Structure formats: structure tokens, C-alpha cells
Amino acid sequence: MRVVTPAETTPRVRELFEAEPGVAHLVVLPGAAVKPEGDLLLADVARECADSLLSALRRLGVPRDGSITVEPLDTVLSDAAVRAEEAAPGEGSDAVVWDELTGRIGEDSRFTASYQAFLTIACLLAAIGAITDSPVLVVGAMVLGPEFGPLAAIAVGLVLRRGAFVRRGALALVAGFPLAMAVTAGATLLFDATGLLSSGTLDHLDEVAFIYQVGPFSFIVAVLAGLAGILALTSAKSASLVGVFISVTTVPAAAFASVALVEGRLREAGLSALQLVVNLLGIVIAATLALLVARRTRRRRIRGVARPAG
To answer: What are the transmembrane regions (predicted)?
Structure first.
């Protein structure tokens, strides 16, 4: 953790670091900061202590008058660091660093050209996978889809009461999916015109029929995926997100709804659209509940951190 702070605030910031059991290798460099002017403090902080420490630094007004930078450390060879890690309460892999989460969600939830490109390509791949009855292509499209970022942003916004996050995530979903589905519908018309697709092609899709088969397990799987996704984001185990993407049928449902609608198969189109809505709602509900529990745990921990003097 790197902190730039005015000289008059440095003693209180230093007290915070020294009082935190999960801090090692504290370095104070008076007058090292030039823009803005102030002192520079460097410290290695156990992940399970980071969130409460950041909250205390915010109460001191450090972000207003200086800055706080947090960077993950992959390898630290130090007995002092080991002792700090052992002294810190809880497990680092279970700790939620809310500032890190909001920063990451903020980047992943924006409605950008790259987001739309990934979503559109994913829908096209899913459409081709459905047409060819290829579960491999459908799974590939699931992994490629970027929709979990906006869904997580909505959940974070609801829990932290940040309307900007909710609006940003909703915009990415409400604008992104219809655009991707429109392009997929256009591609379907092209496939029809070139003889690559006909309505009869959709008669035998045994391998990918799960796309439009909506049932109780559709919602249950979406809830489990939402829980797993948020846990992966908050515990810094992003590799687990791949499994989350494969679990939910958002992109394939959106893609197949477009294909079925163009081919005049209204029942399958309607069921696919319903599958999409069920999955989106299940993920948001589960992620919101998981974050509420984490938020309550955080508040309990912050109450145990002594407020800085003065």
C-alpha cells in the first residue's frame, strides 16, 4: 500500500499502520511527494486487514488531500511478512477489499466498443453452435461473453447504494444484448440466403436443447453461478469465473432467441428469451445477497478497529 499525505496528517496515518497487526515493512519518506506535496508511506499489508485500513484512511481524508494506491504482491520473502499474515484476523483468500472490488467492477461494466464486440461475437458463436448442434461452440461463446461484469455492477450498486453502478450495468445489458441479438438476426438472414440454414435445421438440436428448456434448475443454476461469481471476484480467485460463465445460459439464450425468431419458431424464441431473463435475474439476486452478507461482516470488523486519535 502506498500513501501520499500532507505532513500534518502523517503522524496519524503512521499510527494507523503501526497499530494494524497485519502490516509489515512500514517505510516513511518525509517530503518525498512533490505533486501534491507531502510525505510518502509504503507498507506491505495482509489482505484481510486492507479493507479496514482503507476505511480508516478515508476517515482521515487521505484521498482528498493525497492518494492511496493498492497493488497486489505475488511473492514476499520475509519473516516479518509471515508474522504479519499470521497476526491478521481471518484468511486473506476470504477477505473482501471493497475499494478493489468497486474499481474492478467499474472497469468491467462499462458499455464500450470492446464490450459490445465481445458480446456480439459471443452471440454469433452461440448461434452457429446452436445451428450446428455443437455444444463445444456454445460453451466457447459462454466463456467469451462479458455480461457478468454489468451484472456484478448492478449487485454492487444495490448493496452500496451507488446508483451510478446500477445505471452503468443496466445500460450495458439493456443496450448490449439487443444490439448483439440484432446482429445475430442479420447473420441468420444471411445464412438463410446462402442456404446454410433453414427452419428444418432447428428440428434436431438434441445437444443444445438446454438453451431454451426453462425449468426450476434454470434459476437454481443461475443463483449458484451468481454466488460463485461474486466469491471469485471478492476473493481474488478470478480463474473460477470461467466456470461461472460456462454455468449460465445468457449468451446462448440471447443468440438462439434471435435465430428462432428469424426462422418463425416463436415458441423456441420465447422460451430462449425467458431463459435469458431467468438467468440474469438469478445472478443479480444471488450476487446481491452474497454481497449483503459480506457487507455485514465488514461492518463488524470495522467496529473492532480503533478510530485514530484526533
So the answer is: 113-131, 137-159, 171-191, 211-234, 241-261, 273-294
